[in-house]
Design a protein that fits this description.
The structure is a homodimer.
Chain A: H1 3-20, H2 25-46, H3 73-92, E1 96-97, E2 103-105, H4 106-109, E3 131-133, H5 138-147, E4 155-164, E5 178-187, H6 194-210, E6 215-221, H7 222-232, H8 239-246, H9 254-264, H10 269-279, E7 282-283, H11 285-292, H12 295-298, H13 301-319, E8 326-329, E9 342-348, E10 381-382, E11 394-395, E12 406-410, H14 414-422, E13 434-440, H15 441-454, E14 464-468, H16 474-486, E15 491-493, H17 501-510, E16 515-519, H18 521-525, E17 528-533, E18 536-539, E19 542-545, E20 553-556, H19 560-566, H20 568-574
Parallel strand pairs in A: 1-4, 6-8, 14-15, 14-16
Antiparallel strand pairs in A: 2-3, 4-5, 5-13, 6-9, 7-8, 9-12, 10-11, 12-13, 16-17, 17-20, 18-19
Chain lengths: 579, 579
């Protein structure tokens, strides 16, 4: 917008104001003349006819970028509640906060995400460094450790912030291009499996406090998985890609996964079948006994080490009282390259694609009675264009689940990769063993929000709404509002000089403020104000105000703050028991 | 990083683990053989000699992008404290939270920032929409209002998040390319100047609670400023650019500003002198009387309207009891195009460039005795290259102040510009009057942080550190830690099986945990634990632990939680009175 256009807009406002105020005709005329001059000046600059005055501009599209969205006040009230719980558990477990920039130098992100590197959002080269938006919090954290002396670090760090992936979004399931992850990581050299158990306990605590419904922590070990692939005869260079295929067993039946292994990835069919026999297992500690009895597996050093570590982990999880939440799931593989030890995912009922039952994934190879096969959940592609600019295809949202709501694993080499790369590979890299978890805040919001709406939760925390029954009393209202606010009571009022009482009640009810405080000229002279408590209820799924014949309580103005603070209603809101 | 390199890293870890555990020679050999195969496979792929195994990679630079930085645990503890205060005031004043994406469609940002549009960070075109990082919160907010039915909106919305400007950073003064702004905006049709007074009161409340030292709210009105320019004879098309020059009077003497007006911007010297006579004024309500007595100014419709509104505003600010914080400053102009009414900035002692005194800006044109002129504060350019890629010059940080710590104004046309542009300019645009303020969180941090360090503030909130005096007692430690955490007591322990007591004390002291809880085998059998309170003090500017001969208190394990919670120390931390 040209500076002249700003000036035109401002003079137009002034012109309208003056006419509204019935100002002198001469003043109105002067502004009108000036407007004319400005419009002619603009026309001369843009070459348009002066009559249109810049109105023939191209239409702009009012929308957020693909895969992103605004969160309005009610949604943010819920999201803040979720974030508060997560952060509180993070600090209760001894975590400290870290904040890194939203973008990184491209070379920091390069080579950390395997096949998914194509999803990285690059910034335009505007002269300077090559930059890209962060893809997760883990790589920036490892870069931070490497910059700040990795070897001596012993830390529990948490980060809450947005990360970016140019993926196909499924907005209704909280799968976005811009999304918020809350990460907790433990770095340092400790005794085997103790930090690992601590992280799993942390995830269980958060999931319990968030009320996302029943949840399960799926758990596996990269060393066991790698051992299985070796024992089954997967060539070394195919291990990671076969691992990615196995990871899809939470949303595809085994038959499809096997096809991917053999047809797409060129694995021998017999090898695939041997893998299938292993990865169909899931369960608790008894599964460990089964593996320990497998001589072929125990002869593989990687598998043996992983199985022993899992035994130790289950012992510690017992002390943390969370074994009942764990499913040792041999099909869990996780996509990211950098994991070196245990890996895990938290899932809820909303995680799987609708109609898909992971328990039936091996239906065709199982000896159990054959249940009706679930519909193939491979997301159908629909050629739905959003804004005429995108050439990617949209997925059918009804065929996609929320996915895992938290996930992570141990990554003992990532920091060392940075220290090695920064040293040019010449000297021995400083290592720093790490383990962490990322909580998918948008996916959790997608689960919590419908319940929040159903329960009619408030969208803001305003406690008191100050009104005048008499002649406006603006100064008196402002003074009382400021006193209440200074006492920590969240208070508002209507920005009108002489508002009618019903308009003020309507404004206070829109905010669902539980206390209506009414000032009257005569009462004020006696040092009194009237307080009326407001309540809401859910009737037939609709939230509505409880009608009441209560005329309110007369309270001494000087005692109003302590009166409000002593009510059960205030104490309920203030301590967070009522939301 | 190639998948094979990941595999090499993992096998290397396994190889080292096995050697450490003194595993079978055959197992070690097997892993060694596999490693050799992998390295040969990698060499074949990359064409390197197998001996180096991929070590000759290019060295990467471990740093954050220019103008950005990490905030570590201690700093984040302080930043969270600042953010908590700001958000608390926002909700106390009736605000609701809004969150918009970090990037916007380019056409949304286009034409809103005048000469500063060149500072916008663009994203790379990767097929799809043209996107750019947000420059402030105001334009996304206006886009949100325009998308969600502007005319009916009455809202107080706040946003806290990062915004982006490709400017020359001055990191030590909190002037960054990525920085956090906390915005509060009031939208809707209300009686004149009431929301305006509310916003100014909000800024005063926040500045008082943040303890940034003495502060002043500089206040002016775009209508008065425009009227002055007209009365002085500035041509219409030069008003905005002359306005930008006037705005520099907080860091440049009048002589330099005048030179910019006449030499760079071609203004007549006599016109500039007339402007100088007006903009040198600052003060309180008496300045209004002075302006009202100026017949030439009062004959200008824009100036007259502005002066009347300022009179009303001062009346309301009286009711809010904040007039003593206000400086009606006729040189305040603000750079952004979209303001239409009052504009304001909060400044502190740290705002001005070191050695520059704005009160002396008019020294050479004043009749008062001439004080020693301040050194010319125009930032010196230094050709300091940061990373061999940037071609921009760095500014000399010692010559730059923190600048304003909060700023804003009324912008009644911005939402209407969006509704008009979305409608293609054909029909009448839906307007929504708005007023808002942006708080510069990094600048506030730059002021608060040194004081925080001086006072030896804690960097985390861990309350209790659980230790074992006996034989490790890992299970017992984990169980007690989990009980304390479940009771809301932030607790940690050392992740070792059989740690020595001094190592555990050292770890607890690193966290500055005020309660050391010590478990001993025999005591536990009697149902007892030992609690030792830890204290710190500042001596000669250094924080250190208070040495004490106290052997600790024996407490019943079953009463430990209530015992800790009843201590003055715990209550001090928990209520935030001690930081």
């Amino acid at each position: 917008m040209d500076l002249i256009q700003v000036e035109i807009a401002q003079q137009t406002t002034l012109f309208n104001d003056l006419r509204k105020q019935q100002a002198d005709a001469s003043a109105v005329d002067e502004v009108k003349k000036k407007l004319g001059e400005l419009k002619r000046a603009l026309a001369a600059l843009t070459g348009e006819s002066s009559k249109d005055g810049g109105k023939k501009k191209e239409r702009i599209l009012l929308k957020t970028p693909k895969g992103t969205r605004d969160y309005g006040p009610s949604e943010m009230h819920c999201r803040e509640h979720i974030e508060r719980i997560v952060k509180d558990v993070f600090t209760t477990y001894g975590g400290s906060c870290l904040d890194t920039p939203v973008f990184e130098r491209k070379e920091i992100l390069a080579g950390k995400y395997g096949e998914d590197a194509k999803l990285i959002f690059d910034l335009k080269d505007q002269g300077g460094e090559e930059l890209a938006l962060r893809y997760d919090h883990t790589v920036p954290l490892a870069r931070y450790f490497a910059m700040n002396g990795a070897l001596n670090t012993q830390a529990k760090l948490w980060q809450v912030g947005k990360v970016y992936r140019r993926d196909n979004p499924v907005m209704s399931k909280g799968r976005m291009r811009e999304f918020t992850q809350a990460d907790f990581d433990i770095a340092g050299i400790f005794d085997t499996m103790i930090p690992d158990a601590e992280i799993i306990s942390l995830v269980c605590t958060i999931m319990t406090k968030l009320e996302v419904g029943d949840f399960t922590i799926k758990l596996n070990h990269r060393k066991i998985l790698d051992g299985i692939f070796e024992v089954c005869g997967v060539p070394q260079e195919k291990i990671r890609t076969i691992s990615s295929a196995v990871d899809k067993l939470d949303k595809m039946p085994w038959a499809d996964v096997k096809k991917e292994m053999t047809e797409e990835k060129g694995l021998d069919s017999a090898v695939a079948d041997r893998i299938g026999e292993y990865v169909k297992h899931k369960g608790g500690p008894p599964l460990l006994d089964l593996l320990q009895a497998d001589a072929a597996l125990m002869a593989n050093p990687s598998a043996k080490a992983g199985i022993e570590e899992m035994g130790l982990l289950f012992k510690y999880l017992e002390a943390y009282s969370v074994v009942d939440k764990i499913s040792f799931d041999m099909s869990l593989a996780r996509g990211l390259d950098y994991y070196t030890g245990i890996i895990y995912e938290a899932i809820t009922e909303a995680s799987a694609p609708p109609g898909f039952n992971a328990a039936n994934a091996f239906a065709s190879t199982s000896d159990a009675p054959q249940p009706t096969p679930a519909p193939t959940p491979t997301p159908k592609k629909k050629a739905k264009k959003t804004d005429g600019q995108e050439d990617e295809e949209e997925v059918d949202e009804s065929k996609v689940g929320v996915g895992s709501v938290a996930a992570g694993g141990r990554y003992d080499n990532l920091v060392g990769m940075f220290t090695a790369a920064a040293a040019g590979g010449g000297k021995k890299a400083a290592q720093l063993p790490c383990i962490g978890v990322s909580i998918g805040m948008d996916r959790i919001f997608a689960i919590v929000w419908p319940r929040w709406v159903e329960r009619g939760m408030r969208s803001k925390d305003t406690m008191a709404y100050v009104m005048a029954a008499g002649d406006g009393l603006l100064t008196e209202r402002v003074r009382l509002v400021q006193e209440l606010r200074a006492a920590g009571i969240k208070t508002d009022f209507l920005f009108k000089n002489k508002p009618k009482l019903p308009a003020q009640f309507a404004a206070g009810e829109k905010d669902e403020a539980p206390f209506a405080v009414i000032l009257g000229g005569d009462e004020l002279k006696e040092g009194l104000v009237t307080v009326k408590e407001q309540r809401w209820e859910i009737v037939d799924g609709e939230k509505r105000k409880v009608q009441s014949a209560d005329q309110g309580t007369k309270v001494k103005r000087s005692e109003l703050i302590s009166w409000i603070k002593s009510t059960p209603t205030y104490q309920g809101w203030a301590t967070g028991k009522l939301l």
